[in-house]
Amino acid sequence: MYSYSWDYSQLTSPNEFSWSLGVTPFSNLAVIVSAWVAYFAVVMGCRKFMESRPPTSLRMITAVHNLILCVWSALMCAYGIVDFYSRWKSRGIGECFCTSDENALKGRLFYITYIYYLSKYYELLDTVILALKKKPIIFLHWYHHAIVILMVWSWLEDANMYAR
């Protein structure tokens, strides 16, 4: 998956963050496809494994998982609001939604978008938890979790292509 070319050092300074295809960890399309294959295989395996077993009680695991998601989302939202407000004050409201400055496509706001992208991988555990609880998993749930990873990746890659 070309992880040998990943540069983790760019993740240590959010203010200097810049998405780079194949260099930023998890930026390769092969990672997304591999995650999809693993996601579907693990969930189908869990469903098969649970066929002859009673539903698993995962109350504590579910609570911790949801707490992590809530805190993670709150932090991303808070940083996003701060950066949005800062950009609004320094560049005007128009630059918050549609910018022509390629330097605006780097830094902490895009780092937060990248962290949001990584959170989509963690959210795949939602489906595993549902499978172990023997809850129904509708197509929309599968589709949403799979496609959002690609959608957020495309935001980052589109900004990267614009900045070149």
TrEMBL record:
GO cellular component, one term: endoplasmic reticulum membrane
Compartment(s) where it occurs, according to its Swiss-Prot or TrEMBL record: Membrane
Record's keyword terms, sorted: Fatty acid biosynthesis, Fatty acid metabolism, Lipid biosynthesis, Lipid metabolism, Membrane, Transferase, Transmembrane, Transmembrane helix
Similarity comment: family membership: Belongs to the ELO family.
Transmembrane listed as a keyword: yes
Gene Ontology biological-process entries: fatty acid elongation, monounsaturated fatty acid; fatty acid elongation, polyunsaturated fatty acid; fatty acid elongation, saturated fatty acid; sphingolipid biosynthetic process; very long-chain fatty acid biosynthetic process
Membrane topology type: Multi-pass membrane protein
InterPro entries given in the database record: ELO_CS, ELO_fam
Record field: transmembrane: 20-42, 63-82, 109-125, 137-156
EC number(s) stated in the UniProt entry for this protein: 2.3.1.-
Keyword Transferase: yes
Protein name: Elongation of fatty acids protein
